[in-house]
Amino acid sequence: MDAFSAGKVDALVQALAPQSLPDVPEGMRLNVHTTISKVAVLYEKIRNAIDYKDDHLLRKAAILRIIKRQLTYTSKSDEIARNLVRELIAARYLPNNTLPESVVQDVQGILEKFLMMRRERVGRERHQTWLLGITAAELEELMTDHRREKGLLQFLFEQLGDKITLSGAEMEETERRLQVYIACHRALFKADDEMLSYKLVRAYYRSWMQPETWGAHHREMALQMVGIHETILRQLKHPYAQKFSTAVKPWATSLRVLVEALDEKPEDARVLLGKPESLLAAVTRVSERNYQEAKQKLKRGMVRAMIYLFITKTLFAIAIEMPFEQIVYKHIDRFALLVNILFPPILMWIVASLIRVPGKDNTERIAQGVNELLTAEGPLGREIKIVPKRRGLSGFFFQFIYAFTFALSFGLVIWGLWALKFTAVSMGIFLFFLCVVSFFAFRLRVSAREYVIVEKTASTGALMVDFFALPILRAGQWLSNSISRINVFIFIFDFIIEAPLKLFLNILEEWFAFMKERKEELQ
């Protein structure tokens, strides 16, 4: 490795410096009884098992879920704020006996912004959902310390803001830098659209963060937020967004590995940064450890998914497939039923077994990225080449071939099922689960490759698999986005189980507090 820039080392060390939390007196801290917490944690583990999300999104998802439930009972921001904070502490999304009681007032202030917008009823339902999403993201940032993330993001963006360029297309400089900024968030922290929307609102529309300036005339702000929503959505769904994320990924991955290596001994971070060869060894060790952990994480996710799919498919067969076939065909095809039950988990297992650990060249590329981030010359950068859209006869030809792949892929599957004497019902169910499970397995596989930055050249066999699999994956993506809105299991948990459970836990918490007061009177 080359000699590192003292300025960059100082900037990185400052970003990684531990942030001191204000000392809160014992009697002013929010506390939840241990018994309540154990029940709440168990429920959250079961709830999260049926609604797969990355670990870093679970707390925000819980905030969103709790607010939605609370809004069915009350529109008072103080009640929602108090219940929200206590539920998050009980479920261990927030530390117990640590946060000051004043955090409830801070949460209430943020919720009041959303409630003011909600009362105006401006925009469609999609806009109201977006407002709730950025509110959840703002609350998540309020209740946890994100100063380190901000420092690391600034460090990466300063390195890459001018180094990711475009060729083959026109783009304003401000928009190009904004796309680099969004890509840094996605590649470094795996931020979703709700988190990114909030960060863009915070960065470019500061008035939202200052409700005291518009609270008296909030309808104007409500109308303005509709336009802001559309502007941000256009940037998040930009046609070149994925290309920017791909361009930024090598250095974002290198920075993540570097931070993990320095976090092993935070007190020696500056010393290690002064020894390039020692840092290289640490980066190599952490990279190889991450490869193994990512593969194990994938396997755990696959096992969870296999169990969930087996149970779901079995219930699906009992509730729909078997009765329907009995009524329509007067018999139940046990072979087709068995295939439909076993195929989804087997497909997940096959995908998991095909995952390979990245090679030495990937680790070397990560080390190279670390070197570029810390040396004075900085990253070499990358030029994104935009291929012009195919129009006319060539465009029609490729669209025709693409449509043909759909007909061919699904036609071959249907032909195979027909040869096995599947009924129309069994075929429909098989195709449904084939598409959804294939897309879910693909997403899990992508998440397991978060440290892969050196892509292997696709073999002829891989290209053939892609040719037939892409239509199924695209269909699975569409189905997944559609059925995620009508997940029966999530509805059962959120509205039939969670509401009475949390009400019971709140009453139990009040009872414990009452008993504690009576006990103190005896002393």
Describe this structure in words.
Helix content is 73%, strand content 2%. With 523 residues, it is mostly helical. The protein has two domains: 20-144 and 170-239 and 487-521, no CATH class; 298-368 and 388-486, no CATH class. It contains 19 helices and two strands.
N-to-C order of helices and strands: HHHHHHHEHHHHHHHHEHHHH
User: What is the tally of helical segments?
Assistant: 19
Number of domains: 2
Compute the CA-based radius of gyration.
Answer: 26 Å
For the terminal residues, how far apart are their CA atoms? 67 Å
- Helical percentage: over 70%
Instruction: Give the overall silhouette.
Output: globular
Proportion of residues in extended strands: under 5%
* Strand segment tally: 2
- Mean pLDDT score, rounded? 83
Major sheet characteristics: 2 strands, parallel
In the sheet with the most strands, the strands line up as 1-2
Uncertain ranges: none
Secondary structure layout:
Layout: H1 6-16, H2 34-49, H3 58-71, H4 77-90, H5 103-120, H6 125-143, H7 147-160, E1 164-167, H8 173-189, H9 193-204, H10 218-236, H11 241-263, H12 269-273, H13 276-329, H14 334-353, H15 360-374, E2 382-385, H16 392-419, H17 424-448, H18 460-483, H19 488-521
Parallel strand pairs: 1-2
Helix pairs in contact: 1-7, 2-19, 3-4, 3-6, 4-5, 5-6, 6-9, 7-8, 8-11, 9-10, 11-13, 11-15, 13-14, 13-15, 13-17, 14-17, 16-18, 17-18
